[in-house]
Amino acid sequence: MDKLERQRAAESAGHPEWAELPDTMGGAWREDVTQYFTGRSCPHGHVAPKTRSGGQCIECRRIKDREYRKTPQQMQYMRDYMRERYRREREQR
């Protein structure tokens, strides 16, 4: 995909700034940025940047994270974490 096609894909997704990202994972590593934008849709149809670390579409990752936070295990972990954090902050005062 050439630069003009990437620019059009970024603009149609509502984020023209994505076209400024590198177009490959290797380019992202060389430029030391965490995301790259190919301009192509992921298998789920999202046209969004991908993560440098795993090549996963950031929109797919956002959906997966949202679903995980709803699990009982994660909710209990967050309750315990916040209780402990609050307790430590009170002790420091």
Detailed description of the structure:
The protein has 93 residues and is mainly alpha-helical. The protein has one domain (3-92). The protein is built from four helices and two strands; from the N terminus they run ααββαα. It has helices at residues 3-12, 25-31, 58-69, 72-92, and strands at 35-36, 50-51. The protein has a two-stranded antiparallel sheet with strand order 1-2. The chain is elongated. The mean pLDDT is 93.
Protein topology:
Elements: H1 3-12, H2 25-31, E1 35-36, E2 50-51, H3 58-69, H4 72-92
Antiparallel strand pairs: 1-2
Biggest sheet descriptor: 2 strands, antiparallel
Number of domains: 1
The overall pLDDT, averaged over residues, is: 93
Radius of gyration from the CA trace? Answer: 19 Å
Secondary-structure element string: HHEEHH
- SS-derived structural category: mainly alpha
Give the CA-CA distance, first to last residue.
57 Å
Unreliable spans are none
Portion of residues in helices?
A: 40-55%
What is the molecular shape? elongated
* Lateral arrangement of strands in the main beta sheet: 1-2
Helical stretch tally: 4
Tally of extended strands? 2
Brief overview:
With 93 residues, the chain is mainly alpha-helical. It contains four helices and two strands; from the N terminus they run ααββαα.
Name some characteristics of this structure:
single chain, 93 residues, mainly alpha, two-stranded antiparallel sheet, 4 helices
